[in-house]
């Protein structure tokens, strides 16, 4: 003989699978990465014990000031990011929840992803060198440029590497430094033709830049709104679309003459 369940018993029986489902959802892996401000590196000096820019075949300058490339640190491509992690970091200003494929290429093989990021950095170094030497009207067959950013992967340091090469070879073109003695930071990809591209993670990179003393941040113009969203106090944004435009903006900052773009 079947007995009738009381209302509390019915609710308990019905709630059990719902609770189980919610628990599964909270701890199930999601296609997101959690990122935070990473290291910055002055491309005019050393990083991880090695000189970032080494030039032979042409005289180089002693430079003042800094040109700091910026990075983010994200959970690994094989990390387990749950709904709890997403909710816990969503409103944290020094954390960002990003789609996994915005940080890492498609695929689950960690070694393949690391190789992809290394290849991206190597290609970025080559295009940064080409863009800088072309800007200076110098023959790449006569000048040897070696770039080393240690374990940093990806193409986002391209703009700063090009500017570092230019500063070491020519400075501001008037006997001074391209930085004007300031701590300049920034981010952006670069093409061989000198076009600057967007990179992602800009709000976190501005925080890293200000933390390490930068007062000026070169940002791809397409990412101005992202950079402004959580801009640290004391950091000036300078939007750029080309290497030539970045050089002109730094010269204007240094001399106080000419227009400096603003977001």
TrEMBL record:
<dbReference type="GO" id="GO:0004176">
    <property type="term" value="F:ATP-dependent peptidase activity"/>
</dbReference>
<dbReference type="GO" id="GO:0004252">
    <property type="term" value="F:serine-type endopeptidase activity"/>
</dbReference>
<dbReference type="InterPro" id="IPR008269">
    <property type="entry name" value="Lon_proteolytic"/>
</dbReference>
<feature type="signal peptide">
    <location>
        <begin position="1"/>
        <end position="28"/>
    </location>
</feature>
<dbReference type="GO" id="GO:0006508">
    <property type="term" value="P:proteolysis"/>
</dbReference>
<dbReference type="InterPro" id="IPR014721">
    <property type="entry name" value="Ribsml_uS5_D2-typ_fold_subgr"/>
</dbReference>
<keyword id="KW-0732">Signal</keyword>
<protein>
    <recommendedName>
        <fullName>Lon proteolytic domain-containing protein</fullName>
    </recommendedName>
</protein>
<dbReference type="InterPro" id="IPR020568">
    <property type="entry name" value="Ribosomal_Su5_D2-typ_SF"/>
</dbReference>
<dbReference type="Pfam" id="PF05362">
    <property type="entry name" value="Lon_C"/>
</dbReference>
<feature type="domain" description="Lon proteolytic">
    <location>
        <begin position="132"/>
        <end position="236"/>
    </location>
</feature>
<dbReference type="GO" id="GO:0005524">
    <property type="term" value="F:ATP binding"/>
</dbReference>
<dbReference type="InterPro" id="IPR027065">
    <property type="entry name" value="Lon_Prtase"/>
</dbReference>
<dbReference type="GO" id="GO:0030163">
    <property type="term" value="P:protein catabolic process"/>
</dbReference>
